[in-house]
UniProtKB/TrEMBL annotation:
Its cofactor is heme. This is Cytochrome bc1 complex cytochrome b subunit. Coiled coil: none annotated. Residues 220-414 form the Cytochrome b/b6 C-terminal region profile domain. Its EC number is 7.1.1.8. PANTHER family: CYTOCHROME B.
Amino acid sequence: MSGVIKGFARKLFPDHWSFLLGEVALYSFITLILTGIFLAMFFVPSMATTTYPLDALPVTEQGNHVSEAYASTLKISFEVKGGLLMRQMHHWAALLFMASIVAHMFRVFFTGAFRKPRELNWVVGFTLLILGLLAGFTGYSLPDDVLSGNGLRIADGVAKAIPILGTWVSFGLFGGEFPGMDIIPRLFTLHILVVPGLILALVGLHLLMVVIHKHTQYPGPGHKEDNVVGYPVFPVYAAKAGGFFFIVFGFIALLGATLSINNVWSYGGYDPSPVSAGAQPDWYMLFLEGALRLMPGWEFEWLGFTFSMSILIPGVVIPGILFTALAAYPFIEAYATGDKREHHILDRPRNVPVRTAIGCIIIVEFFILVIAGSNDILATHFELSLNGITWALRIAFLIAPFITFWLVKRICLSLQRRDRELAMHGRATGRVVQTPDGAFHSVHRPLDDYELWTLVQHDLHRPLEVGSDTDADGIVRSDYKSLKRRSAVSRFFFEDRVEPVTKSELAAAQASHHQLDHSSQSTSVAQLERTDQDEIES
């Protein structure tokens, strides 16, 4: 075992702030487990009705008939020492856990860290994202208050919108007609046993793959596909990771102690008869709420069945397409590039404009749906028309992808052109040189090795060429149609591109600048002042 331990202890990891996003997710999950164990000791996962004690806080609930789950939540908040702090830390940790997972996945997406050999690890990370959503939904549904009850009512509506099977799915989930008596105990089992167990297993697998495949690194001098430039796990990263855990834990404790969240006594116990406005779920589920609010009330009947498209499309179809495309993206890009090599050097987002544009589309659409999930709050606070906000967001949701794609792609290509000019000519110094033939030239400062390497090291993918539909013998190629489809996908990704600087171009540019600097020593030189570009001192 000593050899294994020594090998792991000397494992190198690169040093960059963006790599801490995954660690924030891990430490938030550890905080969730610690606070969740505390809460599980006092929570009663039962929907049985009880009378809230007349001598217990809050006063507004005294003598009310509430569920055991809701009553135990209030007991944790008002009677258990440290209970309210643990509840709020648990909730804040859940929000931070999901935020760090999303940020970490976007870092991986934009930098191309999902490429071979990490496609499977991307799928594992994506599964962790889905499990995080499931853990959040099952968790905030447990107190059985009005807010969580409305969320379960929406889940019931989405289940019933599934064609043919919807009613049976709802009955199976709730143990009968909504709300039933079984959903809270079932959610409790999922929340404290099944989902955390799966998350722990996948986190271990995720970290194991990171160790096996070695860590990705950003481009720089000495950074190659077959090495890692960084610090060993022990003692450097062991000390840093331990300290960073307490920073994350302390930050969550500060949030839990100072910022109130999910005050269930303000909402009251769940009553399925009224419908309340101004209720929003946690931020990571708000996009589903927004999709439901934006969808028009479309439905039709066919073969005696009612198809509620107003719920089915935003609640099932759109999330299904989105999450499936997100999970399959590494394989789609590999199909477009035809690249079978292993990649350990990360991309700069500007060098892959189509991928960057697709990621920005997801972000923009997510924010539109989040705003839509709060359209009633916007209407009341800013005295705007609710229908006007809804129609504006519907239009934005449909046209924003095209505008975002075009704009981000143009920005990336422009940044590539700027990088090309910088690599060939360096940075402007403000000096102007007059050569013997009377011409004036601007003098540039060459880039250092680190800057130059960053600008010229990236690979350039070109669209795949299909060629003729027949081979050299005039026989029709059997793979022509599949290659033609692959070429179309490849053109979408790589048709618009900026060619990187070649070695010959770079050598010629450097020789030209060297000759210009040499000639400036024996000719008149003009100095352009940055404060006054019109004044030239000879």
